[in-house]
Amino acid sequence: MLTTLQAQERAQALIERARKAGADAADAVYIADASESVSVRLGRLEDVERSESEHIGLRVFVGRRSASIGSSDLSDDALAELAARALAMAQGAPEDPYAGLAPEELLFKGPFPDLDLIDGGEPSPQELRALAEEAEDAARAIAGVTNSEGAGASSGGAVMALATSHGFAGAYAATSRSISASVVAGEGGSMQRDYAHRMARHREDLIPPAEIGRQAGERAVARLNPGRMKSGPAPMVLDPRVGGSLVGHLLGAMSGASIARRSSFLIGRLEEQLFDSAVRIVDDPLRLRGFRSRPFDGEGLQTAPRDVVRDGRITGWLMECASARQLGLAPTGHAGRGGGGAPGVSPGNLHLEAGSASVAELIADIEDGVYVTELIGHGVNGVTGDYSRGASGYRILGGQIAGPVAEFTVAGNLIDMFRAMTPANDLEWYRTINVPTIRVDGMTIAGD
């Protein structure tokens, strides 16, 4: 895997080839990653895997015509052919009045901030195996656990570089460390499985493997012998493991491309009070050691923290340059980039600010409701906001979490759900979208 400087130089060299081939403008993105993982099952080594990949993507412009192409072959001959093919494709493409690089005056000139994304010490395969074994041993030690689907530990690193023909060049690197465990409780047809998983940029930010195993084992045992929910209206409480999906649906609807296509349930609601006035959702791409931290976006614009929701209202759309031009607005530094194609929208590290009530206080007045720990399926309509997903979790009776329940559906509309949303005070920071426990009143439950 190349260093950040080498990656940046490789992207710049491809831009030069594209310009020599006749492109009016171009940008190139280089992405590489390498990872090593070790998995164990029932106390025995099951797999050791090493993977490495690198990819370079080129986007060229001929007037208002553009084309994108990518390759994992980074030899000189392959890159020369890549530039020539991209130019030929662009010359035959339709004109797009909104296509183009980011405005030159908005490019981030640096210096780039140090976001502490790199863990200097890379664990050996033996160390990874020891972490996985410790997690599985702790999970299997929980009374009621009868089998294991395995535990694993991994270590990885990635490099991303972006260069444009009008003056931007930058690169950054990041590492990742993770531990997971998945086990089975019960016997025969009554078996239940659950898992626990943690990931961090630095190994020291992970919780102990034994704690991950304990969580996996206790969660699996707690799901044994689930009951059924009765159908009807009821309050729903979302565990933080799944509550972040609500924020994800909001972000998808706030995408400039969705607004420009008029395919978002937020059309016409920019000034509307969507949440309780105490609700605040923050996007922070500069959070130290964050999973989505980055000094610049996929078009070379500076990133910065921003309130996505403040005082219960959304603060505007999240836009890359093409949708910003179409909407007559300014880009927001949220352009995301994969190995090829035009930029999309990608937020930074997000969190829903904690509320004032504990989880116990949040559910204290619920006579009959449900605490959801797993959501199944993709029954969310991004145009209308209609929401319907399979779920499992625990019943809430008399203000207390009771026994497990499964095979039911929760349904509503996201606009109504946002208005009825109340966060607890148990926010933790170890996901890409961090939320506390969330209560949503007025859901429709379909069970027995």
Automatic annotation (TrEMBL):
Task: Please report the stretch or stretches of sequence annotated as the Metalloprotease TldD/E C-terminal domain.
Answer: 232-447
Q: InterPro entries, alphabetically?
A: Metalloprtase-TldD/E_C (IPR045569), Metalloprtase-TldD/E_cen_dom (IPR045570), Metalloprtase-TldD/E_N (IPR002510), PmbA (IPR047657), TldD/PmbA_N (IPR035068), TldD/PmbA_sf (IPR036059)
Which first-to-last residue range defines the signal peptide? none
| UniProt domain Metalloprotease TldD/E N-terminal: residue ranges | 26-90
Q: What is this protein called?
A: PmbA protein
Q: Which GO terms describe its molecular function?
A: metallopeptidase activity
Query: What's an example GO BP annotation here?
Result: proteolysis
